[in-house]
From TrEMBL:
Catalytic reaction annotation: a UDP-3-O-[(3R)-3-hydroxyacyl]-N-acetyl-alpha-D-glucosamine + H2O = a UDP-3-O-[(3R)-3-hydroxyacyl]-alpha-D-glucosamine + acetate
GO cellular component: membrane
Name this protein carries in UniProt: UDP-3-O-acyl-N-acetylglucosamine deacetylase
Gene name tied to this protein: lpxC
Gene Ontology biological process terms from the UniProt entry: lipid A biosynthetic process
Length: 292
């Protein structure tokens, strides 16, 4: 992967929609930012307008989604936006949201990609940091794991292996990709969030996601998608790969390596992101000591 400079967007853009969990209408507005800003998120609906610097240290555990926190202010369902920003190589951006939960949209990252591409890209006069994987690390169990290993060609390779067993209405499938903006936009961004009809019933009983239907995302029963059609035969695996990219984007630098997930989810992704960041920080400290 080439060493590149940092980027921001040329003009502000926005995406609007309804939160899956809350049902609340929310507007996400994205603005250009200066070198070294990173991705920062602001809750404009709160009086103090808390400002969060996106990173794995800000992550909070929450079911079925990635949530970041700044004090008591939370930013939920951020993974699709972060995946789009990472894949499009947008490093510096201010994200304003007027609710806790980002919009679910159609369950994919396509609307974010469309908005960001329409905003244009500006090359900035600072090199973007890279994390080059130089060893193999596997974290998880025999049933669910994520393995990180050196890249075969200097690029980032992602693979997701999905297998929920013979009783699941979602059949075993996988997807792999050498990551680039083009690959993400054409093959991954439009893959949608999915759940089973049983999960929807459980969530509704718990008082959340009661408005979600098969038109908002992919809902599977024994016959397949309910009231919807697949965009890809392996759309579920592609979406899990999208989530993986968004969660590992929390490391905050370009990743060069091979990332293979077998039945992993947000929590496992976050554990690996923390491990990668720790390895990177150790290398920086070691290099600093040698230079001193």
């Amino acid at each position: 992967m080439r060493q590149r400079n940092e980027h921001t967007i040329a003009h502000h853009c926005q995406v609007e929609g309804r939160g899956y969990w809350s049902g609340q209408h929310v507007c996400v507005r994205l603005f250009p930012a200066s070198i070294g800003t990173g991705i920062r998120m602001v809750r404009t609906d709160l009086a103090e307008k808390p400002l969060l610097k996106v990173g794995v240290g800000a992550r909070q555990d929450q079911q079925l989604r990635t949530t970041l926190a700044c004090g008591t202010a939370r930013f939920a369902m951020v993974e699709h936006l972060l995946a789009a920003l990472y894949a499009l190589e947008i490093d510096n951006c201010i994200v304003e949201v007027n609710a806790e939960e980002l919009p679910g949209l159609d369950g994919s990252a396509a609307a974010y990609v469309d908005a960001l591409r329409s905003a244009g890209l500006v090359i900035q006069a600072a090199p973007k940091s890279q994390l080059i994987v130089d060893r193999t690390i596997r974290i998880g169990t025999a049933a669910s794991w994520l393995e990180v290993s050196p890249s075969p060609d200097g690029y980032a390779h992602f693979e997701y292996q999905l297998d929920y067993g013979p009783d699941s209405p979602i059949k075993p499938q996988s997807h792999r990709a050498r990551m680039s903006a083009e690959t993400f936009c054409h093959d991954i961004a439009s893959a949608r969030t999915f759940v089973t009809a049983e999960q929807v019933a459980e969530l509704s009983k718990a008082g959340v996601a009661g408005h979600v239907t098969g038109k908002d995302l992919l809902v599977f029963d024994e016959q397949g998608p309910v009231g919807n059609l697949l965009r890809y035969k392996n759309e579920c695996a592609r979406h899990k790969l999208l989530d993986l990219v968004g969660d590992l984007a929390l490391v905050g630098c370009d990743l060069v390596g091979r990332f293979v997930s077998h039945r992993g989810g947000h929590s496992l992704n976050a554990t690996v992101a923390k491990k990668l960041l720790a390895v990177a920080n150790t290398a920086i400290e070691s290099n600093t000591r040698r230079a001193a």
